[in-house]
Write a structure and sequence with these properties.
By secondary structure, the chain is an alpha/beta fold. The strands form 4 sheets. It has a 6-stranded antiparallel sheet. It has a 5-stranded parallel sheet with strand order 6-2-1-7-16, sandwiched between helices. The protein has 14 helices and 16 strands. The protein has helices at about 15-25, 65-75, 80-85, 100-110, 125-130, 150-155, 205-215, 240-245, 295-300, 325-330, 355-370, 385-395, 415-420, 425-445; strands spanning about 1-10, 30-35, 55-60, 90, 95, 115-120, 135-140, 165-170, 170-175, 185, 200-205, 270-275, 280-285, 310-315, 315-325, 340-345.
Length: about 450
C-alpha cells in the first residue's frame, strides 16, 4: 500500500474539504463518488458538494457559532469557504450561495488538482476498494444518505444498531410567478432598501390561522418501513411546528419581528424568501422544510399572499438521515475503533449542518495528515469550535445530531461589573467565548508545529 495515498469516499462538503486539504499537502487522493451511478432522492445535481437543503452556510458574524467555525476553517484554506465567497448571493449577515455555481466551482477545482483522482463508483467494501487503488488510509464522508451498499458494510462491520433521524427540504419558487404587489423587500431590523436581501410575504391574523389550520390538516408523507420520524430540532418541518401549536410558526420561521411594512404596521406573521441564485430567478422559502405531499404543498402554499399563481421549481421533501454512534464506534481522531485506518467525517459522525460537516472534513484530514507524517494526535481544546463539536459527539450519552452552538463551549466567567448588566449579557458572553475560542485555536495550532 502507498503510505501517502488516501481514499476519500463521498464528495459532499466533508469529502471535498478533506480531499482538497490532503492534496494541497502533497498527499495523493482517490476521491470516489456514487451520485452519477446511484443518486439518492434528494440529489438534483451531478456535481460535487451539492447543497440539498437550504443554500445558506449560516452567519458570517465572527461572534456567532458559525462565524467561529468559519474562522477556524479559514486557517486550513477551506475550499468550501473560498467557493462560497466567490458564488455568494445577498443574504444579510448570512453566507448564502448560488447552489449550482458553488457546486460547479468545487467540482472543477478538485477534478483539475494534480494530486486528486476522481473515480465514479458506488463503493460497497471500502477495504477492498482501497486495496484495489493502492490506498493505505480511508475517509468515509458519504453523509446521512449513504448508499445502500455502503450502509450494509458499515452495519455489518462496524455498527449493529441503526441510529437515524429525518431531515426535510424547503421548496423553491419561480420568482416570475409571484405577485409582488403583495410582497415587500426588507431585512429584519433594517430600514427599507431596494437592495434588501429578503422578500417578505405578510399575513394578517385571519390569513395566518387559516394557513396554519391547512398545514395541520394537509396530507403528509409517511415515515418509511414503520419507523417513527425523528427530526433534528433546529430544522423542523413547518407542518410539525403547526402541529405543536397554532402560534409556534409565528414565533419561529414566520415571526414578524423587525419586518415592519412600509406603512409602519407590523404584520401578524411573515413568510420570508431568500434568493436561490445570483440572478434572483428563484426564491427559497426560509424555514419551510415540509413533509406535505406535493399536491398539498401547491394547495397550501398558494394561500401565502403573493403565491396565488406560484410555480415551484422544486417542492419540499423529507429524507432519512443515518449517523453513527461516535462515542461507541470511533476514536477521538474519528478513526474507527475496529478499523483504525478507516476514518469518518461529516454528518455521518453526528454533526449537523453545512459548516459543521465541512469543518469536520478538515478536522479529520488535518489529523490524518499528522498520522501520515508520524506526528502524535492531541485532543482539540473544547473551547474551540471544532473541538467543541468533536467533544459533543464523543461524549453525548444518547446520540442526537447537533450543530455548533455556544452551549457546547465552556462559558467565559464574567467579572462582577459585567454581571451587573442584564441587558446584553447573553450577547457579551457569546462575544467573549468567541474571542477566547480564536485565541485558544491559534495557540493550539502553533503548538502542533
Amino acid at each position: 500500500m502507498n503510505k501517502n495515498r488516501v481514499l476519500v469516499i463521498g464528495a459532499g462538503l466533508a469529502g471535498v474539504e478533506a480531499s482538497h486539504f490532503l492534496a494541497n499537502n502533497g498527499i495523493e487522493v482517490v476521491l470516489a463518488e456514487a451520485k452519477t451511478i446511484n443518486r439518492n432522492p434528494s440529489q438534483k445535481l451531478e456535481t460535487f458538494a451539492e447543497l440539498v437543503c437550504t443554500n445558506s452556510l449560516k452567519s458570517k458574524d465572527i461572534s456567532s457559532a458559525h462565524g467561529l467555525l468559519k474562522s477556524e476553517m479559514s486557517h486550513f484554506n477551506s475550499l468550501v469557504l473560498k467557493a462560497a465567497n466567490e458564488t455568494a448571493v445577498p443574504a444579510g449577515d448570512a453566507l448564502a450561495v448560488d447552489r449550482e455555481a458553488f457546486s460547479e466551482l468545487i467540482t472543477k477545482t478538485l477534478k483539475n488538482h494534480e494530486n486528486i483522482t476522481v473515480v465514479m463508483a458506488d463503493v460497497s467494501d471500502p477495504l477492498a476498494f482501497a486495496k484495489e487503488h493502492n490506498c493505505s488510509q480511508i475517509i468515509i464522508a458519504t453523509g446521512p444518505l449513504t448508499t445502500e451498499n455502503l450502509t450494509k458494510w458499515i452495519q455489518t462491520d462496524l455498527s449493529k444498531e441503526d441510529f437515524y433521524f429525518y431531515d426535510a427540504i424547503a421548496p423553491v419558487v419561480d420568482s416570475d410567478s409571484l405577485d409582488y404587489s403583495k410582497l415587500y423587500f426588507k431585512d429584519r431590523h433594517k430600514e427599507f432598501d431596494e437592495s434588501a436581501d429578503y422578500l417578505n410575504a405578510p399575513m394578517n391574523e385571519e390569513q395566518y390561522y387559516a394557513f396554519v389550520e391547512e398545514l395541520v390538516k394537509a396530507e403528509k408523507v409517511p415515515a418509511q418501513d414503520f419507523e417513527e420520524y425523528k427530526f433534528f430540532e433546529a430544522c423542523l418541518p413547518v407542518d410539525i411546528m403547526a402541529e405543536r401549536g397554532k402560534d409556534t410558526p409565528r414565533f419561529s420561521c414566520m415571526k414578524p419581528i423587525g419586518l415592519t411594512m412600509e406603512d409602519g404596521t407590523e404584520p401578524y406573521a411573515v413568510v420570508q424568501l431568500r434568493k436561490e441564485n445570483l440572478l434572483g430567478s428563484a426564491f427559497n422559502l426560509v424555514g419551510f422544510q415540509t413533509r406535505l405531499k406535493y399536491p398539498e404543498q401547491k394547495r397550501v402554499f398558494s394561500m401565502i399572499p403573493g403565491f396565488e399563481n406560484a410555480s415551484f421549481i422544486h417542492l419540499g421533501s423529507v429524507h432519512r438521515n443515518s449517523f453513527l454512534n461516535a462515542r461507541n464506534l470511533l476514536n477521538w481522531d474519528l478513526s474507527s475503533k475496529h478499523h483504525p485506518h478507516v476514518h469518518f467525517a461529516g454528518q455521518m459522525t453526528g454533526v449537523e449542518g453545512y459548516t459543521e460537516s465541512a469543518s469536520c472534513g478538515l478536522y479529520v484530514a488535518y489529523n490524518l495528515l499528522r498520522k501520515l507524517t508520524d506526528k502524535t494526535f492531541e485532543k482539540w481544546p473544547v473551547e474551540t469550535g471544532m473541538g467543541a463539536l468533536v467533544n459533543y459527539i464523543m461524549t453525548i450519552e444518547k446520540p442526537v445530531p447537533s450543530s455548533l452552538n455556544f452551549g457546547l463551549i465552556p462559558p467565559v466567567p464574567l467579572t462582577k461589573d459585567q454581571r451587573r448588566f442584564r441587558k446584553g449579557r447573553k450577547k457579551l458572553k457569546k462575544q467573549l467565548a468567541a474571542t477566547r475560542a480564536r485565541e485558544v485555536f491559534t495557540g493550539f495550532m502553533e503548538s502542533q508545529i
